[in-house]
Amino acid sequence: MSAGRGRGPLLLTGAAGAVLALAAGAPTWVTGSVPTATGTAAVVATGRDGAPAATALALVSLAAVVASTLGRRLARTVAALVLVLGGAGTVLASLAVATAPQDALAAPARAASGTTGAVLAGEPSVRPWPVVSAAGGALVLVAGAGVLLRSRRWAREGDPAATSTRHERDATRIRTAPAPGDDPAAAWDSLTHGEDPTR
C-alpha cells in the first residue's frame, strides 16, 4: 500500500469523526426540571451548552485533518498529535455529561429559577447524543494515532512529498556539479597534448 493510499482512509476516518462530534453537539443532550416561584420549569442543555469543549475540540480536529493533507512530514506529525489530543478531549468532555448530567443543567437551572443555588426536581434525563459525540471523538483519536504510528513507514515507502524533496536535492547537485570543460587545468592539459578542449 502506498503512502498516499494508506493515509487517505485514516484522514477520512478522522474527518468523519470530527463531523460526527460536531453534528452531535447541536441536539438536546440533557433535560430536567427545576422548582421556581410559580411551580416548576423545564430546563434543557444541548451538547454545545453542556460540553462546549467537545465542540471546540472537534473543530480543531477537523482543521488538523486539513493541515495533515497539506503539510510535509513534520506538519503531519504535529497534526496527528493534535488529532490524538483532540479526539481524547472530545471523548472525555462528552462522557462527562453522560456521567454527570446535573452539571450540564446547572446554568440553565439557575437562569430558570433566578437563584444561584437551584436544585433540580428529580433526576435529569440523558439522551444518546453524548455517546454519539464520544464515538466521533474516538474515531478522531484512532485516526490520529494511525497517522502518527505509520508516518515514518510511509516516508520509507516513498511518501510523494519526501520523494519530491529528494529529487529536488539531487537535481540541485547535478546542476551545481562542474563540467569537465569548465576546469581550466584540464583544458590546459588538453592543449599541451594537442587536443581541442572544446570538443
TrEMBL record:
The keyword Transmembrane applies. InterPro entries: Trp_biosyn_TM_oprn/chp. Residues 156-173 have a biased composition (Basic and acidic residues). It comes from Kineococcus radiotolerans (strain ATCC BAA-149 / DSM 14245 / SRS30216). Residues 177-189 have a biased composition (Low complexity). Residues 156-199 are annotated as: Disordered. The keyword ATP-binding does not apply. It holds the Pfam family Trp_oprn_chp. The chain crosses the membrane at residues 51-71, 78-98, 129-149. It comes from the Bacteria. This is Trp biosynthesis associated, transmembrane protein, Oprn/Chp. Keywords: Membrane, Transmembrane, Transmembrane helix.
